Amino acid sequence: MSEKNTVLVTGASGTLGSAVVPQLEKQGYAVRPMTRSARSGWVTADLRTGEGLDEAVRGVDVIVHLASSPGRPRTTDVEGTRRLMAAAGKAGVGHVLYVSIVGIDRVSYPYYRAKLDTEQVVKGGGVPYTIVRATQFHQFAEMLLSALSKPGPVIIDPDWRVQPVAIEDLAEEIAGLVGRPATSATTEYGGPEVLTFDDLARSWLAARGRKRPIWRLGIPGKLSRAIRAGALTTAATPTGSRTWRDYLAAKY
């Protein structure tokens, strides 16, 4: 793509968006970050109401759709994406790249069901698309460990299996896909290794120099069984290269 090609990034201020925007700029794209609140140099639009979307997508070649609201997924993710796709179709956008989550079709969880419905909106939106399902970010894994350690000990199901991915690796993958034609397909992208929550907890505590006890409990339920069975992991290649321990070493 030439420097004149314009890429709109929804969710540009989020964890992944904060890595995607500079990666696209580094590769010479004219990046149009989108936000709900006025911000200098950014375009203002609201997926929940549709306000500003027509202006946001005008003159855009590719949309990288990252915006999501786990607390309000029906309003923001499903219906907001429907509004975005309608605006993109009217504006003649050539490619919508939507980032979803590995395992949403295998794990019974309300937010995941909304993400699965959002994928269907993208597929039926009348605009050429690419869907990339990513595994859990390193930051999310750490956030979950922090939440599980609030009582004092770290309380985990030791056999939960995850495949944490670096946002930098995923941002590079997304930037590469932006430069290619829409695939009209769903692909998956994960981190370089599958780890149990026991692995995560022990390495996390060691990196922080903490000696908290780890309470290992088999968490019952369908969701937990799916995670133990690897529903949040993927065998897709290529994978990212930055490991969980790389993330911990860089942070601590």
TrEMBL record:
Residue stretches making up the NAD(P)-binding domain: 11-138
Pfam families assigned: NAD_binding_10 (PF13460)
GO molecular function annotations of the record: protein-containing complex binding
InterPro entries attached to this UniProt entry: ComplexI_NDUFA9_subunit, NAD(P)-bd_dom, NAD(P)-bd_dom_sf
Residues that span the membrane, as ranges: none
UniProt xrefs under Gene3D superfamilies: NAD(P)-binding Rossmann-like Domain
This protein's name: Epimerase
Species of provenance: Paractinoplanes toevensis
Taxonomy of the source species: Bacteria, Bacillati, Actinomycetota, Actinomycetes, Micromonosporales
